[in-house]
């Protein structure tokens, strides 16, 4: 039997109850990772945990947590330190689309929520988990961007701004970890068959889009101890799964 690429590596996945985060969790389970799954909904986390265990993973640590709660992220880091003493992989997949509307018509609370989840939460994760990633012989941090971050796009205000800022923040973190064993990268997953995509493009035929499970290979490769890529924005490619 071939050695699984993430055997025994402790991997934390945010947004793990559905969509891309759930797909990444399943892929990591398939490759032998020990999972810490973070999302707001307990039922969704339990469902994904069942799917991961069906792929041979041990029961995951389930963390029902709203990423807009920065103090809860701090407590998460402390709990992981006490339990494991290290973190090998951070896959930050959670995201919030918010409201597609002109900037002048965007509600302040919507703007604040999108920035909190897509940007500030990832800053808090870095702040809380950096010591644990550095404690690993091969810590890996993976953040998720979007094509919306590449150029100005009308009505995509908060989401596009948050992703553009996230790219810069992740690249700064990569510069700051250059001399360490931590490797930091950004993945652009492209168009996917997710609830967020359906909300953004209600007239689009979802059946024509790749399922998130079809693009997770890049997340496995970047999470592996052997991966030396650093400070890159990596475009996901579609690879149909056998499951």
Explain what this protein looks like in three dimensions.
- The chain is α/β, with parallel strands linked by helices and 243 residues long.
- It has helices at residues 19-30, 42-54, 70-83, 108-135, 157-176, 195-200, 217-223, and strands spanning 10-14, 34-39, 61-64, 89-92, 140-144, 183-188, 233-235.
- The protein has a single domain, classed as 3-Layer(aba) Sandwich (Rossmann fold).
- It is built from seven helices and seven strands; from the N terminus they run βαβαβαβαβαβααβ.
- A seven-stranded parallel beta sheet has the order 3-2-1-4-5-6-7, with helices on both faces.
- The mean pLDDT is 96.
Helix content: 40-55%
Q: State the helix count.
A: 7
Q: What is the quaternary state of this protein?
A: single chain
On the 0-100 scale, what is the average pLDDT? 96
Structure class: alpha/beta
CATH architecture: 3-Layer(aba) Sandwich
Name of the top-level CATH class:
Alpha Beta
Q: How many strands?
A: 7
Overall geometry: globular
Spatial arrangement of strands, main beta sheet: 3-2-1-4-5-6-7
What is the gyration radius calculated from CA atoms? 17 Å
Task: Show unreliable segments.
Answer: none
Order of SSEs, N→C?
Answer: EHEHEHEHEHEHHE
What portion of residues belong to β-strands? 5-15%
The name CATH uses for the topology is: Rossmann fold
């Amino acid at each position: 039997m071939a050695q699984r690429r993430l055997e025994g590596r402790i991997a934390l996945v945010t947004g793990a109850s559905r969509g891309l985060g759930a797909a990444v969790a399943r892929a990591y389970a398939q490759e032998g990772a020990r999972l810490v799954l973070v999302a707001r909904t307990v039922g969704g986390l339990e469902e994904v945990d069942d799917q991961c265990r069906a792929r041979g993973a041990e029961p995951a640590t389930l963390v029902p947590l709203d990423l807009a709660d920065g103090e809860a992220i701090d407590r998460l880091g402390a709990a992981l330190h006490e339990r494991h003493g290290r973190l090998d992989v951070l896959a930050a997949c959670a995201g919030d689309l918010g409201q597609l509307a002109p900037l002048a018509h965007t509600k302040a609370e919507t703007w604040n929520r999108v920035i909190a989840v897509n940007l500030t939460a990832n800053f808090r994760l870095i702040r809380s988990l950096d010591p644990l990633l550095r404690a690993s012989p091969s810590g890996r941090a993976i953040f998720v961007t979007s094509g919306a971050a590449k150029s100005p796009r009308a009505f995509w205000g908060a989401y596009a701004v948050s992703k553009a800022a996230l790219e810069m923040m992740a690249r700064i973190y990569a510069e700051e970890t250059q001399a360490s064993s931590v490797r930091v990268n950004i993945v652009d997953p492209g168009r996917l068959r997710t609830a967020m995509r359906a909300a953004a493009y209600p007239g689009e035929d979802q059946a024509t889009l790749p399922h998130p499970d079809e693009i997770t290979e890049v997340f496995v490769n970047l999470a592996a101890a052997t991966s030396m890529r650093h400070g890159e924005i990596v475009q996901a490619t579609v690879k149909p799964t056998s499951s």
